[in-house]
Specification:
This protein has about 500 residues and is of the alpha+beta class. It is built from 15 helices and 18 strands. It is elongated and about 85 Å long. The relative contact order is 0.09.
């Protein structure tokens, strides 16, 4: 039967249901979630549960119905002599796979060992007009999984488990931060200038104020404004937006956890984030050792610390300290035959962004176990504090796991004069065509001039770290509803 024929048949069945019950009731009072009902002892009476019908086996005077929710499934056993003739016929003729059903009855275990509810009453809770995918194959096309995540969740238990685990991971990270005295705050999504990171922003227009606004790249400068205001430990799970290219580890909108602590330096945060991740991972996975694509990663072991300069020198033979300008560095990169990936003309990029692209090309893919990357060049980190012993380097680290950057952290720059000079240099790069360079933020400079204590902060992409921990091929697998290009009109499913 074609899908159109199924739609038509179910529309007709809806009319049958309407003559007996409300097909779209307002509510249904449950006594238990399905997972709770499965743990009840046999003989427990007056249980009321609900879920989506995943299968039905009609056997004359007895029908077996499997219903499910996000956390599990349970079998409903319906007998003609218990339900009564009319209700039993309603079950057989009115319900389809995909419909929502409420059942009232008693817990027992079948001879086959299946925990079940012996139904004394059934309730129609919602009509499904489209058929669910075939249960044995589920939804395997990644395009369908991303565009119609609801079907992916309906049919694939691994997908359900992945997003439940992601929620648990976020919960445990938040719990750890709060237990350490951090306060969660909110910062603006729409701002009058791009701020917080070197990336191309999204631009919108604010009609009421008649001005262009930017969607935040990162909440960094606003969280540090809170430190100026007297907070000592702050964090935010912030939705961020960067108008950049799409690949397996990058999307334009994503969730970033940023965290700032007064009186810390970046070395303090190296200890902090290792303890935080080890704690959260152990609580969610049951162990500090996570197996990712047949490879075990031990988060409880000592994490390696490597120099940015030494890493690039080792991996491609380029001593970045010898090349003080972007043009000289680019010439050497080309002479070495290294091809850098960039959506922007390489000739327009500043030295810092060139170094970053070089590292991502020759070094980052080789790092597997948790590794702290330190001693970044200062022109790569416009908001980071310069090192006291070598002002050409910054007090910064990145945490790399399995070839992916998980955390970026600084000892923050708190000298307003130096910060202004760096932002002026960034503005110069932007004027010369570097679309990812930062712009001047006068209000942030003014805030700094009221006084800042020593600060260290870090940011962690939640979707990306979860991608690494679960070993999925695409970051879209870690996002419930990723943005997709609309399909052509003639390919779209028609709706009744």
């Amino acid at each position: 039967m074609s899908e159109n024929n199924i739609l038509e048949a179910r529309q007709i069945k809806l009319e049958y249901v309407k003559n007996i019950a409300n097909p779209f009731p307002e509510r249904y009072e449950r006594t238990h979630e399905i997972c709770e009902a499965r743990d009840l002892e046999d003989g427990t009476l007056n249980v009321r549960i609900a879920g989506c019908i995943k299968s039905m086996r009609k056997m004359g005077k007895m029908t077996f119905v499997s219903i499910a929710d996000i956390q599990g499934n349970i079998q409903i056993v319906a007998k003609r002599d218990i339900l009564g003739e009319n209700k039993y016929e309603f079950l057989k003729k009115g319900f389809d796979i995909g419909d929502f059903l409420g059942a009232y009855g008693d817990i027992f275990t079948t001879n086959a060992g299946e925990k079940s509810v012996l139904a004394r009453e059934i309730t129609f809770l919602g009509k499904s007009f489209r058929p669910l995918p075939e249960k044995f194959h589920g939804v395997t096309d990644s395009e369908i999984c991303y565009r119609q995540r609801y079907l992916d969740l309906c049919m694939n238990n691994d997908t359900k488990k992945r997003f439940i685990k992601k929620s648990q991971f976020v919960k445990e990270v938040r719990r750890y931060l709060e237990d350490e005295g951090y306060i969660e705050i909110e910062t603006p999504v729409l701002i009058d200038h791009p701020s917080g990171a070197t990336a191309r922003p999204f631009i919108a227009h604010h009609n009421a104020l008649d001005m262009d606004v930017y969607m935040r790249i990162a909440p960094e400068t606003y969280l540090k404004r809170a430190i100026v205001g007297g907070f000592t430990k702050v964090f935010e799970f912030a939705r961020c937006f960067r108008n950049e290219g799409i690949d397996a580890t990058h999307l334009q909108d994503f969730t970033m956890l940023e965290c700032y602590c007064a009186y810390y330096n970046y070395k303090d945060n190296m200890i902090f984030v290792q303890n935080m991740l080890t704690s959260a991972i152990t609580r969610v996975w049951g162990s500090p050792v996570v197996e990712v694509n047949n490879q075990k990663i031990d988060f409880s072991s000592k994490w390696e610390v490597v120099s940015f300069h030494d890493l690039i020198l080792k991996d491609c033979g380029i001593d970045i300290d010898k090349y003080k300008t972007a043009s000289d560095l680019l010439k050497e990169i080309k002479r070495m035959g290294i091809e850098l990936a960039s959506v922007t003309d390489l000739e327009t990029l500043g030295r810092g962004n060139l170094i970053d692209l070089l590292y991502k090309k020759v070094s980052r893919p080789k790092i597997i176990n948790p590794t702290f990357l330190i001693e970044h060049p200062i022109d790569l980190s416009p908001l980071a504090r310069a090192n006291d012993d070598n002002p050409q380097l910054t007090d910064r680290f990145q945490l790399i796991i399995n070839g992916v950057e998980i955390i970026n952290a600084y000892s923050e720059l708190v000298n307003p004069k130096e910060q202004k000079e760096r932002l002026i240099e960034q503005a110069h790069c932007k004027a010369n065509g570097d679309e990812e360079a930062m712009v001047m933020d006068e209000d942030y400079i003014i805030a700094m001039e009221f006084g800042m204590p020593p600060i260290s902060g870090w940011g962690m992409g939640i979707d990306r770290v979860f991608q690494v921990l679960t070993g999925t091929n695409n970051i879209k697998d870690s996002i419930m509803f990723p943005l997709m290009r609309p399909i052509f009109e003639n390919e779209q499913q028609e709706s009744f």
